[in-house]
Amino acid sequence: MLLNWKQAVSDIPVAVRLRGAHALLMIIAAIAMVLVSAPTVSAADVDAVRLWRAPDHTRVVLDLSGATDFSTLSLENPERFVVDLSQSRLSASLTSLPLEGTPISRVRSGIRQGTDLRLVFDLSASVRTSVFLLPPNDTTGHRVVIDLFDKTPTAEPKPVLSVESLEGRRDIVIAIDPGHGGEDPGASGPGGLREKTVVLQIARRLENQLAKIPGFKPMLVRTGDYYVSLKNRRDKARALEADLFVSIHADAFREKSAHGASVYALSMRGATSTTAQYLADTENAADLVGGVELAEMDPMLAGVLADLSMTGTLDASLNLGALILEQIDGVARLHKKRVEQAGFAVLKSPDVPSLLIETGFISNPGEAERLATPAYQDKMARAIRRGIQSWFARQPPPGTLLAWQREQGGREVTIAAGDTLSEIAERYGVTVASIKTNNGLSRDVIYVGQTLVIPEA
Ligand SMILES: [Zn+2]
Predict the structure, then answer these.
(1) 167 with 278, same domain?
(2) How many A from CA of 195 to the centre of ligand 1?
(3) Do the domain assignments include residue 115?
(4) Is 321 found in the same domain as 220?
(5) Which of 80, 109, 175, 193 is the most buried if burial means most Cβ atoms within 10 Å?
(6) CB of 52 within 8 A of CB of 135?
(7) Where in the sequence is the domain holding 95, given as residue range(s)?
(8) How far away, in angstroms, is 283 Cα from ligand 1 center?
């Protein structure tokens, strides 16, 4: 039935009538537009532009309201990188991007061919680029990821060859991997607490503690707020020729009551518990959130697990994990009393013993509060460090300072000003009592220049 306009409008109250009339005009306008611009392609809005700086590249992420196509163009003199998005428009500001420390001096936008969005990155240095689309996931919608790699990348950190290492007394390299980062915040807790932030803080504390111990060289796999793919994390550990890879996390579970720290190793078969399976699934999804091109995503576990060297690496991981768990037991509640196993992609190195430590559940309000405090972070780092120390004191890799000291029948330390017995015990991962027994000390008094023999841990 067709109503005459006046008749239709007079039946409804005035306020609504105005809106109704407006809506009708909009519909007419919309029909007119469709007729003019047909055939139409659904347009995408760029709702946000975000930027992260990593040591060797800069990542820009465009959040889109829908899928779109893109094309790119590199221009020289001056250096520029151009990204064109078809049927798109910019609904976000480009002025507050943190460009400091990046090769981007300015980002400009314009309309091209009436409908396309053009983004121009003015560059102060030439870069290698990679641009890709990411489909929506649980937390984000369609994204365009623009990676600008430095052409003179900061050299991959290599263990420093010291005089000792030339004489077969190298340092034991510990690759510390703070989980998540950048686009991927990891789990979230009360008050906006982010896993990526907490785990970087704990990792830094662990790095500081290990750096003070003769014979250990800690290296961080991630040093700031940017994403590193799961495969790249493993590759970095291997490039460092790490003796151990330890990935630090603080995760979430469906039930807020889930609590306790746990230590995980890779599983050759299924997961040892439903929590382990759930966490492995969550962690393995990081590449989807953090933004990794499909081609770079991990192939399945099968290939690596067929490698027999994995068996030895896995045994070492499990035994070392048990020692860390023992130490954490005194600091935090444990989720499980043994090292659990699941198919964590980040632990797939065939030749580097690898562990993933969940320092607690950030989804548990009580634990989240503790995890955010420096004192607790220090305690957690100390527990992990002690576990690592006692493992390598028992099984020093050949050619290391620790192996050499062990061959010499012990370790000697000459007391310097400011040294205390408890600090020395801490440094070598032994007890004050064992140092006293070993050196025939009846009191806690030591003096500068005194030589003590440190017992085996
Ligand atoms: Zn995590």
Answers:
(1) yes
(2) 7
(3) yes
(4) yes
(5) 175
(6) no
(7) 44-150
(8) 5
- Distance from the CA of 148 to the center of ligand 1, in angstroms? 26
CA of 362 to the centre of ligand 1 (A): 10
Could you give the count of Cα atoms lying within 13 Å of 168 in the half-sphere of its Cβ?
6
- Same domain for 15 and 31? yes
Residues 288 and 385 placed together within one structural domain of the fold = yes
- Measured in Å, residue 363 CA sits from the centre of ligand 1 at 12
Domain boundary pick from 394, 425, 445: 394
Has residue 155 been placed in a domain?
Answer: no
Query: Is the domain of 96 the same as that of 236?
Result: no
> Using CA atoms, how far apart are residues 261 and 337, in angstroms rounded to an integer?
10
pLDDT tens track of the chain, all 457 residues?
343 433 333 333 434 344 444 554 444 444 444 444 434 455 899 999 999 999 999 999 999 999 899 999 999 999 999 999 999 999 999 989 999 999 999 999 999 988 999 999 999 999 999 999 988 887 889 999 999 999 875 555 555 555 445 567 899 999 999 999 999 999 998 888 999 999 999 999 999 999 988 899 999 999 999 999 998 999 999 999 999 999 999 988 888 888 889 999 988 777 888 888 888 888 888 888 887 776 666 554 445 544 555 677 888 899 999 999 999 998 888 888 899 998 888 888 878 899 999 999 999 999 999 999 999 999 999 999 999 998 998 889 999 988 887 787 667 777 888 888 888 888 878 889 888 887 777 788 888 877 787 877 6
Three-state DSSP class for residue 90: strand
Helix (H) or strand (E) holding 264: strand 262-266
Does the pTM surpass 0.90? The reply is: no
- Per DSSP bridges, beta strands 44-53 and 88-90 are parallel
User: Kind of pairing, strands 172-178 and 244-251?
Assistant: parallel
Residues 219 and 174 in one domain: yes
Q: What is the DSSP letter of 270?
A: S
| Distance (Å, whole) CA 165 – CA 398 | 11
